[in-house]
């Protein structure tokens, strides 16, 4: 057992055993390839364990943050092997219905440097927010969800689990319980609050039809929304907004929230607090937009550009 595997839980080591057995029995991969995949996943698993997360629980932002660190010390070929290991591992779990979303969907295999989560421009976000038909109760609910997600940077799980008692319209904040049940207060902005208020007055009672539900956002059946429901919603509106399907993921608006804040000069530590990141290295993946903006400004205004 390697030093990295010793840092893993017994359950995670068992997951690696099953994964490697499948690579050999079902796909006939070479022993060296399987060993490389196991080593990559064990190192990633140890990195996650040091942050209180298991391999099976990793999300897109954690994969991206780890890849940003890994790419600084690894060759492109090693980065591509890591991506291949991730894809095989998480697609296998998705096929077994043990995870709801493949966290590798929006990641590209690195070629020469860091890769970042795909995000949307501010104009694309505006188009996406305007896509729902707010003259219907479902469209009004969906517009409110999209507005709140972009205004607050919530994880999708935090959005669908948001309770009525957690909203403070007077103070303009919501109370969020994130990963590890950590609580944080997140400002929402006036526009999102206006849409949320309209949804609560006009759409939510019609969806509930006399039933009760603690969650803010409810389905046609009067129960709380799920992550899968939201994923279907955002995929439905992407083509209406003229956004390619490959640029959309459940965390698209969370990525846009962070990227646009930094692009407008927000301090990285503030963004970290708003996103609920325990480790600032996870937040640093968004700083590339500041570099891109500087290059654009230089190209636009410098006489020698």
How does this model look, in words?
The protein is mostly helical and 305 residues long. Helix content is 55%, strand content 4%. α3 (31-49) packs across α5. The longest helix is centred in the first third of the chain and has 20 residues, at 76-95. The protein starts with a helix and ends with a helix.
What are the key terms here?
305 residues, mainly alpha, DNA polymerase, domain 1, hpI Integrase, Chain A, 2 domains, 3-stranded antiparallel β-sheet, globular, chromosome partition, Integrase_catalytic, Integrase_recombinase_N, Integrase-like_cat_sf
Explain the layout of strands and helices:
Layout: H1 3-6, H2 10-25, H3 31-49, H4 60-71, H5 76-95, H6 122-129, H7 137-152, H8 156-160, E1 167-168, E2 173-177, E3 183-187, H9 190-208, H10 227-237, H11 252-263, H12 268-275, H13 280-283, H14 288-301
Antiparallel strand pairs: 1-2, 2-3
């Amino acid at each position: 057992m390697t030093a990295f595997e010793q840092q893993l839980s017994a359950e995670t080591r068992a997951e690696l055993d099953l994964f490697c057995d499948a690579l050999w029995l079902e796909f006939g991969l070479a022993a060296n390839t399987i060993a490389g995949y196991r080593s990559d996943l064990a190192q990633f698993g140890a990195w996650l364990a040091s942050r209180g997360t298991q391999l099976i629980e990793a999300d897109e932002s954690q994969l991206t943050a780890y890849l940003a660190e890994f790419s600084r010390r690894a060759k492109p070929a090693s980065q591509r092997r890591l991506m291949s290991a991730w894809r095989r591992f998480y697609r296998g779990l998705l096929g077994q219905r043990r995870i709801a979303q493949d966290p590798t969907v929006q990641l590209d295999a690195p070629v020469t440097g860091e890769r970042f989560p795909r995000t949307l421009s501010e104009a694309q976000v505006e188009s996406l927010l305007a896509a729902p038909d707010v003259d219907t109760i479902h469209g009004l609910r969906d517009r409110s969800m999209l507005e709140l997600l972009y205004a607050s940077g919530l994880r999708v799980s935090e959005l669908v689990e948001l309770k009525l008692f957690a909203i403070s319209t007077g103070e303009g904040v919501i109370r969020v319980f994130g990963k590890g049940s950590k609580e944080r207060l997140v400002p929402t902005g006036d526009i999102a609050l206006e849409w949320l208020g309209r949804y609560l007055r006009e759409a939510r009672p019609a969806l509930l039809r006399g039933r009760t539900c603690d969650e803010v956002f409810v389905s046609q059946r009067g129960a709380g929304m799920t992550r899968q429901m939201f994923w279907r919603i955002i995929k439905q509106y992407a083509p209406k907004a003229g956004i390619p399907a490959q640029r959309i993921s459940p965390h698209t608006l969370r990525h846009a929230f962070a990227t646009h804040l930094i692009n407008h000069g927000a301090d990285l530590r503030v963004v970290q607090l708003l996103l609920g990141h325990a480790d600032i290295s996870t937040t640093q993946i968004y700083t590339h937009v500041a570099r891109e903006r500087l290059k654009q400004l230089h190209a636009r205004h410098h006489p020698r550009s």
